[in-house]
Amino acid sequence: MAQFDMPLSDLEAYAPEIDEPADFDEFWSTTLAEARTFDEAPRVERIDVGLTEVVVDDVTFPGFGGHPVKAWLTRPAHVDGDLPVVVEYEGYGGGRGLPHEKIHWAAAGYAHLRMDTRGQGSGWGTGGDTPDPVGSGPATPGFMTRGVLDPHDHYYRRVFTDGARAVDAVRAVPGLDPQRVAVSGGSQGGGITIAVAGLVPDVVAAMPDVPFLSHYRRAVSITDNLPYGEITRFLSVYRDPAVEAQVWRTFSYLDGVSFARRARSAGLFSVALMDATCPPSTVYAAFNNWAPDQAEPVVKEMDVYPYNNHEGGGDYRFPRKLAWLGKII
Question: Which ranges carry the Acetyl xylan esterase domain (predicted)?
Answer without folding.
Answer: 1-326
